[in-house]
Write a structure and sequence with these properties.
The chain is of the alpha+beta class. Helices cover 17% and strands 39% of the residues. The chain has a domain of 181 residues: Porin (Beta Barrel).
Length: 301
Amino acid sequence: MFRFLLVLAVVAVACGFKMHMKMEIPTFNKAVTAAMAGLFAATSISMPANALSKNDILSLSYLQVKGSGLANRCAEVTGSDSIAIAGKKLKVTDLCIEPTSWQVEEEVGVKKGVPVKEFVNTKLMTRQTYTLEGISGDLEVKDGKATFTEKDGIDYAATTVQLPGGERVPFLFSVKNLVAKSSSAGPVAPGFDLSGSFTVPSYRTGLFLDPKGRGTTTGYDFAGALPGLQNGVDGGESLFNENNKKFDVLSGDIEFSVTKVNAAEGEIGGVFVSNQPSDTDMGGKAPKQILSKGIFFAKLE
């Protein structure tokens, strides 16, 4: 008798849950439709939903930001004004660079004996800690061109993406020592562009040890379990890069395009495209090319 009553209770709960779901699904579908419509109405580079202005973000308390992902978001700018540069030395503050998509250059086939490479889409594996924030520098006219020189701030972030086949590609998203020049002397207005190169430090530091205990400043000089392969005759060359750990310093390129300017607040915003190398595992492998796209925000003083 008890089992019979228990079965009836379970069936009743299930029926109620099913009816509840039938009532909730249309509302859920409407929300998804509205969100997708907003995304398609944005620019070609995906803009975050419910974008906030700088003042909106500053008005939030620590507890409101904590765990919400807003600390990884760049502010939005509205307006189509212009800010003159000629004869001035502007201070760029609060430069925020937020990637929204990542692609990795991969060999997708061979055509007439020549490898064919394309940038393929990836899946982000890093938590919301990949946005560069608080970057500052100078913007002035040099040799007839507007030039931005990066000086300080959180200008690099360790990031990892995953290829469709499952391979994970770590890289140091960076704009260290960036010197970017425009094609003109300004003013800063929608359509204003900046492009230049930056430094990409090694993803791993000198104290890092690989699974076999090899490192640059600490650890073994070669794998302890393979001493016979270190004679330089049989197999030594194939293991040289793995044994010879080094701190690689490479370079990348980035291009900014301004789409919004608020002269009253001294704010500019737009989109960017960055092309940089991935991690080399301290010289043990060839780097892959990473194509990052996203949005940026900055204040001019």
